[in-house]
Design a protein that fits this description.
single chain; mainly alpha; DNA-binding; DNA-binding transcription factor activity; transcription cis-regulatory region binding; transcription
């Protein structure tokens, strides 16, 4: 947000159930993370955005660390769902490769998984990513079924393809915009490059 832009007005406080309050706080925290990065995810900023006092935010999460942990857990679950959608597309869609790329890129960019992954990596607590393990395994299995590629060498190629998509999506979500601007590239250049390279794995 530029200096000239006004900050969002604080919401008026209202009565809500504990579940509603917690969900609204997590939604606000996600928005702040996507808009401005991890340093913007503060109890004060979240309270202002959803119309809760600092004390109320602490009441629902225990501490700033508790809120951050809850946010990571919520976003990891969403990433797992997105990967599940990718599995479904791979198994049912004839245009699966590009659909798969778009789903993963959207999860890392619009869904905030890129900033989340960077935040988790910088925090040093990689255990937060453990719930994603099964979703990644399922994605590898779905691609293996789609292309009927058997044997260790086929499995390694599929794993390499998934790694390529994830790393490209992560990099694009973090610095793709500025790099594309420097190079005069199209907005979907990262996705297109990934789609062009992907067939070499199969």
């Amino acid at each position: 947000m530029s200096i000239s832009e006004a900050a969002p007005a604080a919401k008026k406080r209202r009565k809500r159930s504990p579940e509603e309050a917690r969900e609204e706080a997590l939604t606000a925290a996600r928005e702040l993370l996507i808009e401005s990065g991890p340093t913007a995810v503060t109890l004060a900023a979240i309270g202002k955005r959803v119309g809760m006092t600092h004390a109320n935010v602490i009441h629902h999460f225990g501490s700033a660390a508790g809120l951050q942990s809850a946010l990571m857990g919520s976003m990891v679950r969403d990433l797992t769902v997105a990967l599940g959608d990718a599995v479904a597309h791979v198994r049912s869609d004839s245009a699966a490769p590009r659909a798969l790329i778009d789903i993963v890129f959207d999860a890392f960019d619009k869904g905030g998984a890129g900033r989340l992954a960077a935040w988790i990596a910088l925090s040093g607590d990689l255990g937060h990513l453990e719930p994603v393990r099964q979703a990644v395994t399922d994605l590898v299995e779905a691609i293996a079924e789609k292309f009927a590629d058997e044997g260790p060498s086929g499995r390694r190629r599929i794993q390499s393809a998934v790694l390529l998509i994830a790393l490209m999506a992560f990099g694009d979500s973090m610095i793709g915009g500025p790099l594309r601007g420097m190079l005069g590239a199209e907005d979907d250049a990262g996705r297109s490059i990934t789609a062009q390279v992907l067939p070499s794995f199969f």
